[in-house]
Amino acid sequence: MEIIPVIEVRSGKSTRSTFVRSDQPNILRDDVLLIAKRWKDDGATRIHIHDVDGARVGMPQNRDQVRDVVRRIGLPVSYSGGVRTPEVMERVLGWGVDRVIADSETTLNLACKPTIQRLGDKVALELRPFNGKIPRPGGPPGAWLDVLNFLRETNMLHCWSQIVCRVSLGDGGLAAPGGEDIGKFIQQARVPVSVFAKYRTWDELRQVQKFGPAAIVIHEALYDGTLNLPDLINWAANIGKEAPRTSDIKPWMPGYRQGASAPTAASTPAAPRPSVPAPPIRPVSQRPPIPPLPPFPPKR
Predict the structure, then answer these.
(1) Which residue in 60, 104, 161, 222 has the fewest CB atoms around it within 10 Å?
(2) CATH number, residue 102
(3) Are the beta carbons of 168 and 179 closer than 8 angstroms?
(4) CA angle 162, 74, 202 (to 5 degrees)
(5) Using CA of residue 122, residue 128, residue 132, residue 134, what is the dihedral sign?
(6) Is residue 161 part of a domain?
(7) What pLDDT score was predicted for residue 106?
(8) Cα(44)–Cα(1) distance, rounded to whole angstroms?
(9) Does some domain include residue 244?
(10) What helix, strand, coil percent values describe the chain, rounded to 5?
(11) Is 26 strand, coil or helix?
(12) Number of compact structural domains in the chain
């Protein structure tokens, strides 16, 4: 499982600021390139750039910032925001990004199908489910549908090599992950699913991880310091592995020697208990008489 940090870009700058230089710990920066460099230094293997302006107008906008990150950071970059036609997919890939994430409106454009099949892993689909459903692409407000059934009916599900599930509040905002809905979505999709949600605690991360997503895409918690990227990467790399034992405490059990594992109760026989003879039992006739109780003191 991969941990992917997100940089949301609006008007050429990051929508959130963070500390990017150790020699100036109290200065916040919103420069996209500096933030991408920080995520690389923290161990990220991929960066996701979301173009807020492009998602709003339906066409990619912040090309220069994306190209700078691709050329100067040297990490694979995923891009989302306003990708809805085959021509836009080809254009954004020409910027040097490793993967283009298309909007859900792409499912209505059957002309995209040959391009999606040809590009393969370089294209993914972004869906924004709310309680297991999404707004009908191109439909009237308030029209909701089961997205997986819709993709099967249009024969578009098998075209995508990966799906990015952006957990939504219903109005476009990012929501906390819902355990059972996310689990059903991952199991029914039958393609790798990356889960993009508003993670705030380790319990939420573990709740999503148990369903086996391809990646966890995380944004806000990295900027406000709620979660730490090196810790997240280390956690993802050691899922299912036993934590290393670093304790040097020697066990008290006998038979222990340096460099050997602690002996168990089955391997170490218990020491024999010393035999102590029981005191003899005398018959009642040979026991000493019980002394009488002293008389009560006289009343005053």
Answers:
(1) 161
(2) 3.20.20.70
(3) no
(4) 55
(5) negative
(6) yes
(7) 78
(8) 12
(9) no
(10) 30, 20, 50
(11) coil
(12) 1
Give mean pLDDT, residues 109-115: 79
Sign of CA dihedral 196, 173, 100, 51: negative
Give Cβ neighbours of residue 113 (< 8 Å, ≥ 6 apart).
156, 159
Residue at 292 is within a domain? no
Single out the residue of 110, 58, 113 nearest to residue 80, CA to CA. Answer: 58
pLDDT surpasses 80 at 128? no
Question: Closest Cα partner for 78 from 36, 41, 17, 122?
Answer: 122
Which of 226, 239, 216 has its CA nearest to residue 3?
216
The pLDDT tens digits for 43-61 are: 999 999 998 888 888 888 8
Structure tokens, 133:
């459903």
pLDDT, average across residues 59-69: 90
Contact between residue 1 and residue 20 where contact means Cβ atoms under 8 Å apart = no
| Range 268-297 average pLDDT | 69
Q: What was the pLDDT predicted at 262? A: 46
For residues 55-72, average pLDDT: 89
